[in-house]
User: Fold this.
Amino acid sequence: MSLEAPEKHVTYGTAGFRDKAKYLPIVLYRVGLLAALRSRFLGGKTVGVMITASHNPPADNGAKLVDPLGEMLDQSWEAHATELANSQSTAEQNKLLDALYSKFGVKHDSDAKVIYARDTRESGPILVDALASALKSQNAHATNAGVLTTPQLHYLVRAINTLHMPGHESYGVPTEDGYYKKLATSYKKISTLAPNMKPVSVTVDCANGVGALKLQQLAPLLEGLVEFTIANGDVDHPEALNENCGADFVKTNQRLPANVQPVPDKLYASFDGDADRVVCYYTSNNGEFHLLDGDKIATLAASLFCEQVSNSGTKVDIGVVQTAYANGASTKYIEYELKIPVVFTPTGVKHLHHAAAKFGIGVYFEANGHGTVLFDKSTVDSLKTIDIGSPAQKQSIDILLALSDLINQTVGDAISDLLMVLVILAIRNWTPAQWDSCYSELANRLLKCNVRDRTMFTTTDAERRLVTPKELQPKLDQLMKQYPQSRTFVRASGTEDVVRVYSEAASPEAAKEIGDVVLELLKEYA
Ligand code: 16G
Ligand code: ZN
Assistant:
């Protein structure tokens, strides 16, 4: 390593380390040091490192650690990652590392196993080298899994560890092929169970990223059932990654990505750069664009689970987890139409995941398309052991069990989530417009605003209310009283040096006006 310290301070945040790739080789080296320690601390279980910057521009990159069951790194270790990465010299780095070994009572020569992968970014190989050299220096057993989607690496980590883990059922064959086969087998199984399921087709904008490569590998296994067309699948031009395309572009701009000429009423989907987020959309005959975002995916899934659980004769508590950004109409639909509880958590997948794990079946999605469905072990056990009365009951039980295999339960997975959407649409024989018509969204607007110190903005109630600056929340409350069905909140971004302003109301004009007023109120803090 030529440098002894990163050129700027880096922080292990909700999405791991993420920055311009040029700052990251030393950071990846230290991620390697920590990954080996983490594995040793966990008794030699395999931990993962994913090198990606998701939907960020091509010049960025990043790294995330994956814990043994495919979860994100335990939150209590984030500070260790940050501290180690920012060591100002090799001597300081070694001293810190030794201190961590002592603190955790870990022996340097115990077993350490780390598996790592990267997305398609140009800087990936250099960062892989930095990571690999750290793992070598630590005598860790290292496996280079090549180019993968983020959720594929999470799958591998969990599959490797559950191969021989007492108390845990094997998650699947621990290979990339095993991943495709698991998804395809469960999709096919559902197609044999659900009556009259028709083949479906979808065009997928892969953001010119790794999702394109992986969807191409999956597609032949689902021939005859799903027809995939790939748009923005150019991984040979790294500068095209996420450029005018991908889930983040489509959700943020509420419009079609580049290179998609839509046929009315056909289903389209967009992945992000590492394929852990998906949003769907379609256009109507008059050319109008309709987004089917994470909220719509959550409601589609929750309604099917309600129905199948009720047919299965089992008692399972189903719940949905959302963030403040969920459209109020989706929350109302879930609570009043589906009659299932909604829990709110702060933004960031780890919070949602944790809350969803408390339900028998927990559906969680951020509006931006990141999410999945978690099946508690007791739910799966009871589905497997219940006395079966009728063929219809057996059918629902088998569909639910197959869905639990189709859905990647380690983390949100664009490929697996898309298959879930497709299979539900096929079971229901719904067009995208029928799916969309379950509820009408309230008009909404998302703005960002520069302030002098965003840490002044602290929140409560799952980020829906400001605690400080304390004079601001009463003003927002007053504003909401003036517009029917309105809601607005302000929170500091965890990924950018800005505060975000969300507003929603019965009409687009009202949502816009509210947003404008809030921006005006924020001028005081610029
Ligand atoms: C991170 C989060 C994402 C969240 C976003 C919010 C993970 C893996 N990613 O990208 O879930 O929506 O941050 O960004 O947790 P913000 O704090 O800038 O609004
Ligand atoms: Zn992503």
In short: DSSP finds 17 helices and 19 strands in the chain. The first helix runs from residue 25 to 41. Residues 321 and 355 are 7 Å apart (CA to CA). The domain at 294-412 is CATH 3.40.120.10 (Alpha-D-Glucose-1,6-Bisphosphate; Chain A, domain 3).
